[in-house]
Design brief:
The structure holds 3 protein chains of 3 kinds. Chain A is mostly helical. Chain A has one domain (2-265). In chain A, 70% of the residues lie in helices and 0% in strands. Chain A contains 12 helices and no strands. Chain B has one domain (2-263). Chain B is built from 12 helices and no strands. In chain B, helix 1 (2-19) crosses helix 6. By secondary structure, chain B is mostly helical. Chain C has a 6-stranded mixed β-sheet with strand order 5-6-7-3-8-9, with helices on both faces. Chain C has a 4-stranded antiparallel β-sheet with strand order 11-12-10-13. Classes of the chains: A mainly alpha, B mainly alpha, C alpha/beta. Chains A and B meet through helix 2 and helix 9 of A and helix 2 and helix 8 of B.
Chain lengths: 267, 265, 319
C-alpha cells in the first residue's frame, strides 16, 4: 500500500509537471471553474434576499451544508473522477497498457488523467465552508469538529465510489459514460440544500439508497443541533463513516468483477 | 435555390451526427431530468414561503425549471468550441477556403444539431416532469411565439459562440473566454434562477443583455408572459441581438481573413 | 530448469454479435486461439509469426494477463497471469509496436525514471542499465527531449529500453521494427541480440519482417487461424520454404497452364500465370528462357516468399 502511494505520488508529480507547461490555460481554467461553481452559491444568496429562513434554515446554516457537501464532492472530483475517462482508453486500446504494468488500473487511471486545475472548484467549496463556519452560531466542540472532518472524508469516499461504479458500468456499456453524472453532479447539487425540501422518491433514492445524504446533510444536523425531518432516527447522523466503508467494500468488489469480466471477454 | 439546398444538407448532416450517440443521449437526458427535479424542489420550497415571487406562480416556476433544462443542450449552454478546436489543430484552414460561406456553414450545422437536441434532449425532461408535476403548457397561439423566439434565441446563441470561437485566431486559447460565456449565459441568462427573482437593477440589466435572449425569453413565451405589443417588443430585442451578433461575426471573419493573408495562413 | 513460459492447451473464444437482418442479432463463437501449447526456456529468442488475425496478439494478451484464457493453462515465471497479474507484470517487459508506453509530454529520461519507481528498480542498477542501453542504442542526444518530439526511430528505441530497464525475465515484442528506417532497425536488432546473449532475457518476437526473424531467432512458431502449425528451428523453414520463389508471367494471350521443367504452375488468371520454383535448384534466368521458348511473353516479375506464402505453403502441407 505504501509502495503504491509512493508510485502514485510520483505519477502525479510527473503529470502535474507535464501540465505546468501550459500554465496560462491552467490558471484561466481554474478561475473559470471557481466562478462557475460560485454561481450556485450566488443563487443561494439571491434566494435569501427574499426570505430570512429557507426550509427552516438560516443562510449560514445552509451555507454550512453547501460547503461541506461541496468539499467532499470536490475532493472526490479531484482524485477519482478521472475514471470517467476509462471508455476513452478502452476504445483506444490504451487500457491494455495499464494492465501490463505492476499497478492497479484504478490508481493508474487516477494518476494518468489527473487535472490539478480542478482544485479551483475545491477552493470554492472551501471558501463557502470557511465563511459558513465563521458565521454560523455553533459552539465548536471537539465532537463537532470531528464529525465535520470525518464527514468531509466519508462524503468524498461515497462520491468516489459512485464514480467508480459508473466507470465499472462502462465496461459493459462503453457509451454510458455520462450515465453516472445524474448521481454525481446531480447528487452534489441535491446535497447543497436541506434534504427535506425534496419529494419523497428523490429523498430516498438520492439521499439514502445512493447515500449522498450521509455526505453532509445528516452530519450537519448533528453539528447544528437540528432534529431530523427525514428519518427521525437520531443515530443516522453518526453513520457516515460506516456507510462510506460499506460502499467502499461494495465498490471494490464491483470494480474487480468488472475488470475480471473485461479480461474474459475483451477482444 | 442551390444555396439553400446546400445549407439544408449541412443542417441534416449536423442533425445526423448527433443522432448517432444514442447511449450518451439517454444518459444525458437522465442527468438533465434529475437536475430539473432538484431545481424544481428548491424553487418550490422558496415559493411556498413567497408565492408569486417575481410575478410567477408555482406552476409556472416548476415549468420554468424543466423547460430551461430542456434548452441547455440545444442552445449549447455548456459551451461550444468546435471552431476553436479546429483552429488549434490547423484544420480550420481548409474550412476557410471552401466555396461556402463560413458563417453560414457553421450556422446551418448548428441548426441541425439544435434540432436534434431539442427533440432528443429538450422534450423528454418535460415529459417526465409532466408525470409528477402540473405544468403550465402554451396555447397553440403561444406555441407559435415559442417557436419564433426559440429560433431567434438560437441565432443569438450561435452569434455569441461564433464570436468567442473566432477569438481563437488571436488568443492562443479561447477556452477561458468560452467558459466566461457559459458563466454569463447560465447566471445572467436566467438558467439557474428566473431573472425576475434577481434584485431589480440586475433583472433590468439582464433583460437587455443578450444572454437572456438565448433561452430565458423563449421560456417566458412558453409561460405566456408576453402578449401583444409586449411580445413584439421582446421578440424585437432578440432579433436585434441576433442581427448585431451575426453582423459582428461577419466583420470579425473579415478581420480573420485579413490576418491570415498577412501571416501566410 | 523449468521453462520461463508454459502454455498448455490454451484456447480463447470470443462471443461476437453478428447482425442478421435489420433487428435480429445472432451470437457467434469466434475461436481466436485453438488448443495452443508451447514452452519457452530461459534465454530463448523465439519468433512468433502468422498472418493478420491468426491469433498472435490474442496469445500475447493471455501471456501478459490482459486476457484470461477460455481453457487451458498459462504459467509465466511459474505464475498465473490471469490470477497474479501484478506479480507477473513485474517480471515482464512489453513493447506494443504502435502504442506507446512512454509519457508524452515529458523528457525521455523522466519516463525511464517513472518506470524505475513502477518496477522498484534500485537507483544504481537503473543508472547502470540506462547507461549501457543508452550507449548501445545511441540515445544520449535525445534523452532529454520530450517524447512527443521524438522521431519514430528514436521513440522505438526508447520503448525498447523502457521494456528492458527493469531486467525482466521475459520480454514480448509486438512489431518492434515497424516503420523504422534501415539504420534504426539494425540498431534495434543488435540491441535485442546482445540483451538476449548477455542477460539471458527470454524474448518472444512478433513481426511481419522476415529479416528480424532471420537475424534474431533460432526458433520460430507459426500460428494460423488460432493453431500453431509449426514450431521448430528457423533453419528448417528456410531450408524447406525460403527458397521457394514465384515467377509471375504475363503472356501475350491466355494459354493453358505452362509445363516447364523445374517449375510448377500454381495459378492461372487470363494471360497471367504463376510458376513456383525452388530458387536453389533452378536459376531464374534459365526459367524465364524456358517460359519464353514455350510462349510469347509480355511482362514478368519475381515474387519472394512473404510470411503469408510461407504459412500458406506450410499449411497446405499440414492441413
Amino acid at each position: 500500500m505504501g509502495d503504491t502511494m509512493a508510485v502514485y505520488g510520483r505519477l502525479l508529480a510527473a503529470r502535474i509537471r507535464g501540465q505546468w507547461q501550459y500554465r496560462t490555460s491552467f490558471f484561466v481554467y481554474l478561475a473559470a471553474q471557481f466562478t462557475i461553481t460560485l454561481l450556485d452559491f450566488l443563487v443561494l444568496l439571491v434566494i435569501f434576499t427574499h426570505v430570512p429562513r429557507f426550509a427552516g434554515w438560516s443562510l449560514w446554516e445552509v451555507a454550512l451544508l453547501y460547503g461541506l457537501a461541496g468539499v467532499s464532492f470536490r475532493l472526490a472530483d479531484l482524485v477519482v473522477s478521472q475514471v470517467e475517462y476509462l471508455p476513452r482508453h478502452l476504445l483506444a486500446g490504451s487500457f491494455d497498457r495499464m494492465l501490463v504494468r505492476p499497478l492497479g488500473a484504478l490508481v493508474q487511471l487516477s494518476a494518468e488523467e489527473f487535472e490539478l486545475r480542478r482544485v479551483g472548484t475545491l477552493a470554492e467549496a472551501l471558501l463557502v465552508l470557511g465563511l459558513a463556519i465563521a458565521h454560523v452560531p455553533v459552539h465548536w466542540t471537539w465532537a463537532r469538529v470531528a464529525v465535520l472532518v470525518s464527514s468531509a472524508l466519508s462524503g468524498a469516499v461515497i462520491f468516489a465510489c459512485i464514480w467508480i461504479l459508473g466507470a465499472a458500468f462502462t465496461f459493459l456499456v462503453v457509451d454510458g459514460r455520462e450515465f453516472i453524472n445524474a448521481f454525481t453532479y446531480g447528487g452534489n447539487f441535491l446535497s447543497q440544500y436541506p434534504l427535506q425540501i425534496y419529494g419523497t422518491a428523490l429523498r430516498i433514492i438520492l439521499g439514502i439508497v445512493v447515500p449522498i445524504g450521509f455526505a453532509a446533510f445528516f452530519p450537519v444536523l448533528y453539528i447544528l443541533g437540528k432534529p431530523d425531518p427525514v428519518t427521525g432516527v437520531a443515530v443516522i447522523r453518526f453513520l457516515s463513516p460506516a456507510v462510506a466503508a460499506a460502499m467502499a467494500l461494495l465498490t471494490r468488489a464491483a470494480w474487480r468483477g468488472a475488470i475480471r469480466h473485461h479480461r474474459s471477454t475483451g477482444s | 435555390m442551390g444555396g439553400l439546398r446546400l445549407y439544408l444538407e449541412v443542417a441534416r448532416r449536423g442533425f445526423r451526427r448527433f443522432a448517432t450517440y444514442r447511449a450518451a443521449t439517454v444518459a444525458g437526458v437522465s442527468t438533465n431530468t434529475v437536475f430539473g427535479f432538484v431545481r424544481a424542489y428548491i424553487l418550490i420550497a422558496l415559493y411556498h414561503l413567497r408565492p408569486h415571487l417575481g410575478g410567477l406562480d408555482l406552476r409556472q416556476v416548476v415549468t420554468y425549471t424543466f423547460v430551461t433544462q430542456g434548452y441547455l443542450m440545444p442552445m449549447a449552454l455548456f459551451g461550444w468550441t468546435e471552431i476553436e478546436e479546429r483552429v488549434r489543430t490547423g484544420d480550420i484552414i481548409g474550412d476557410l477556403y471552401r466555396p461556402v460561406d463560413f458563417q453560414g456553414y457553421w450556422l446551418a450545422l448548428d441548426v441541425g444539431r439544435a434540432a436534434y437536441q431539442f427533440l432528443a434532449r429538450g422534450v423528454p425532461p418535460v415529459l417526465v416532469a409532466a408525470l409528477f408535476f402540473s405544468l403550465r403548457l402554451p396555447t397553440p397561439g403561444e406555441w407559435a411565439l415559442v417557436v419564433v423566439s426559440s429560433a431567434l434565441g438560437l441565432a443569438v446563441s450561435f452569434g455569441l459562440r461564433y464570436l468567442v470561437n473566432l477569438t481563437s485566431f488571436w488568443l492562443l486559447d479561447a477556452r477561458g473566454l468560452s467558459q466566461m460565456l457559459v458563466i454569463c449565459e447560465m447566471f445572467l441568462g436566467g438558467i439557474m434562477i428566473p431573472i425576475t427573482v434577481f434584485p431589480h437593477g440586475l433583472e433590468a440589466a439582464s433583460r437587455v443583455l443578450p444572454f437572456a435572449s438565448v433561452a430565458y425569453l423563449p421560456v417566458e413565451f412558453f409561460l405566456g408572459r408576453h402578449t401583444g405589443s409586449d411580445a413584439l417588443a421582446t421578440l424585437g430585442i432578440q432579433a436585434l441581438w441576433a442581427v448585431v451578433l451575426l453582423g459582428a461575426g461577419r466583420i470579425a471573419l473579415g478581420a480573420v481573413m485579413r490576418k491570415l493573408v498577412v501571416q501566410g495562413g | 530448469m523449468s521453462p520461463v513460459v508454459e502454455v498448455t492447451g490454451v484456447t480463447k473464444a470470443f462471443t461476437v454479435a453478428r447482425r442478421r437482418g435489420r433487428l435480429r442479432r445472432r451470437f457467434e463463437q469466434v475461436v481466436a486461439v485453438d488448443d495452443v501449447s508451447f514452452t519457452l526456456a530461459e534465454g530463448e529468442m523465439v519468433g512468433y509469426i502468422g498472418p493478420n488475425g491468426a491469433g498472435k496478439s490474442t496469445t500475447i494478451k493471455m501471456l501478459t494477463g490482459i486476457l484470461v484464457p477460455s481453457a487451458g493453462r498459462v504459467r509465466v515465471a511459474g505464475l498465473d497471469p490471469s490470477r497474479q497479474r501484478v506479480e507477473v507484470a513485474r517480471r515482464i517487459g512489453v513493447v506494443f509496436g504502435q502504442r506507446t508506453q512512454l509519457w508524452w509530454d515529458l523528457p525521455l529520461r523522466d519516463s525511464f525514471e517513472l518506470l524505475r519507481h513502477f518496477y522498484r528498480v534500485p537507483a544504481p542498477r537503473h543508472a547502470a542499465n540506462l547507461d549501457t542501453f543508452s550507449q548501445l542504442l545511441d540515445m544520449g542526444p535525445f534523452l532529454d527531449t520530450p517524447v512527443r518530439q521524438l522521431s519514430l526511430g528514436q521513440r522505438m528505441r526508447g520503448e525498447i529500453t523502457a521494456a528492458l530497464l527493469h531486467d525482466p525475465a521475459i520480454v514480448y515484442l509486438d512489431e518492434p521494427t515497424i516503420g523504422l528506417d534501415v539504420v534504426s532497425k539494425s540498431q534495434v536488432r543488435e540491441f535485442l541480440a546482445s540483451m538476449n546473449r548477455q542477460r539471458g532475457t527470454t524474448v518472444l518476437l512478433t513481426t511481419h519482417d522476415l529479416a528480424d526473424i532471420e537475424r534474431l531467432c533460432r526458433r520460430v512458431m507459426i500460428i494460423d487461424r488460432g493453431r500453431v502449425i509449426h514450431d521448430g528451428p528457423l533453419a528448417d523453414i528456410v531450408a524447406r520454404y525460403g527458397q521457394q520463389r514465384t515467377l509471375v508471367v504475363d503472356l501475350a494471350e491466355p494459354r493453358p497452364p505452362l509445363e516447364v521443367e523445374g517449375a510448377t504452375t500454381v495459378a492461372v488468371d487470363g494471360p497471367r500465370q504463376w510458376l513456383a520454383f525452388d530458387g536453389s535448384a533452378v536459376s531464374a534466368s534459365a526459367l524465364v528462357a524456358a517460359v519464353a521458348a514455350a510462349a510469347p511473353l509480355v511482362d514478368l516479375s519475381i515474387e519472394e516468399p512473404g510470411i503469408e506464402d510461407v504459412v500458406r505453403r506450410i499449411y497446405t502441407e499440414h492441413p
